[in-house]
Design a protein that fits this description.
Structural class: alpha+beta
CATH class of the largest domain: Alpha Beta
Helix content: 25-40%
Number of strands: 12
Strand order of the largest sheet: 3-4-5-9-8-7-6
CATH architecture of the largest domain: 3-Layer(aba) Sandwich
Low-confidence stretches: 1-27, 61-67, 294-307
Oligomer: single chain
Radius of gyration: 63 Å
Length: about 300
């Protein structure tokens, strides 16, 4: 019994001793392979991760290219332009503005143009002055008085008279100021340079020759006349010029009343009055007059027919 046990123990011991080298060899061999496999696995994993990373980086632009055209950014709502309230005119405001324009008085020019087709004379005069035309021009201005024409031959015709307002110079002896226009077609050019009344302003009482002056666009002859009494004084300046086959006379006059007294009445500034009248004279123009109707004369008189 003892021998058998020992024999089996030996066998077991022998087997145990025999298996240990086999097990150690197997374990060592597996560990190397596993290590190699693990290293290879890690290397493969590292390569895979690196490949994946490169694939992701290269895929991004490709995705943008494949996605098609980039859509335009959404249009922003246009900001409305500021409205100038003052330019918006409602119908009611327009109607109100039209009424205001209609009702507002228009500013009239300070000067008025006078024109006479028969004589061809035209001139400018202040709107506040009075003007009368034709034969009634002198007679209707009572303050002017009788201012005779100064042609050397009869045949003069009154064209127009312009008068200053009666109260132009308050507190003075001013009575009236006037500008007369007359025309005489019966006077020659040589006769037009002379006057019927001589200028007697010379201290010796001798006549003074007519003076040649330049007024506006015309060369004229000028003389003056003075008439005085206890109640009225009239000073008149006469101008002649020959144009369009006729002699034109322009008379500038100043009338004063009485004599200044201690009651505060002053002498009017005569130079200032004549300066206003000369300003009218400087605007005078003479155009060819419209031809007057021509009548046929017969032995028995004048017929009413026209040629």
């Amino acid at each position: 019994m003892t021998t058998t046990s020992k024999s089996s123990d030996r066998k077991s011991t022998a087997q145990t001793s025999t298996d240990e080298p086999i097990s150690g060899t197997t374990l060592s061999s597996w560990s190397r392979q596993q290590k190699i496999a693990m290293v290879a696995s890690f290397a493969i994993l590292a390569l895979f991760l690196a490949f994946c990373a490169c694939s992701k980086q290269s895929a991004r632009p490709a995705l943008v290219g494949v996605s098609g055209p980039v859509p335009d950014p959404p249009a922003q709502a246009a900001t409305p332009a500021p409205v100038n309230v003052s330019t918006v005119i409602t119908p009611a405001a327009a109607e109100k503005a039209n009424k205001k324009v209609k009702n507002s008085p228009k500013k009239r020019p300070a000067e008025v143009t006078y024109s006479d087709a028969n004589s061809g004379v035209s001139f400018l005069y202040p709107r506040k002055f009075s003007v009368l035309s034709g034969d009634s021009a002198r007679g209707d201005l009572a303050a002017v008085g009788d201012v005779p024409m100064n042609f050397v031959q009869p045949g003069g015709v009154a064209v127009a008279t312009v008068a200053l307002p009666a109260h132009s110079y308050p507190g003075t002896d001013f009575a009236s100021g006037f500008f007369n226009v007359s025309v005489n077609r019966s006077v020659s050019e040589e006769q037009c340079s002379h006057f019927a009344f001589v200028d007697t302003r010379n201290a010796d009482g001798e006549p003074v020759d007519a003076e040649k002056v330049k007024i506006g666009n015309y060369d004229m002859e000028m003389t003056s006349e003075f008439d005085a009494s206890a109640l009225k004084q009239i000073e008149t300046q006469y101008y002649h010029n020959y144009a369009s086959g006729a002699c034109y006379e322009y008379s500038l006059g100043l009338t004063t009343e009485g004599f200044p007294t201690e009651g505060g009445i002053q002498h009017v500034d005569r130079d200032a009055v004549f300066a206003k009248l000369e300003k009218i004279l400087a605007t005078v123009t003479v155009n060819p007059a419209e031809p007057a109707p021509v009548t046929q004369q017969t032995a028995n008189g004048v017929s009413g027919g026209k040629e």
